[in-house]
Amino acid sequence: MKKYFYFLSLLLLVVSCTSEDVTSNNKAFQALKDNVFWRAEFFQAGTETNGIFTVEGSLDYDQIRFQIPEPAEKTYVLGVDDDTKAVYKNTYKGKEAEFSTGTGKGNGEIMITEYNAIDNTISGTFKFTAVNADSDAEKQTIHFSEGVFYKIPVTPEHNFITTNN
Question: How buried is residue 148: exposed, middle or buried, by Cβ count under 10 Å (0-12/13-18/19+)?
Fold first, then answer.
């Protein structure tokens, strides 16, 4: 009888365990920021007035912004040119900082896994190391890994205002 009880307990334990999968959630933008979990509260995607496509996520004073030529389903390599780049900003007063990738600085990739023009959403993964714009700052690089953005709303027929990045 004990064997049956143990078997049923083990079976119940195995059946009740589930893995977390970001695709089971609605809309998400998250990553490990220097190995600490970071999840955006606000996110959006769309085309700026200069024609560049952007994906953005923000949490309080932190903002991540990706710039890609188009929302095509492919992998964009960072650190090669200024057309494709990742920017991280902290806008907290007194602790302002900006890190970015670009021609010959930083590295990483943005992989667009789905661009749904019918539902106006974009999904993908990312990882990057960005360089501080202030060469005299104590912290010179910031690292994002295991990044995912899922079903981020794409604003159709509305251009974002171009910012200086």
Answer: middle
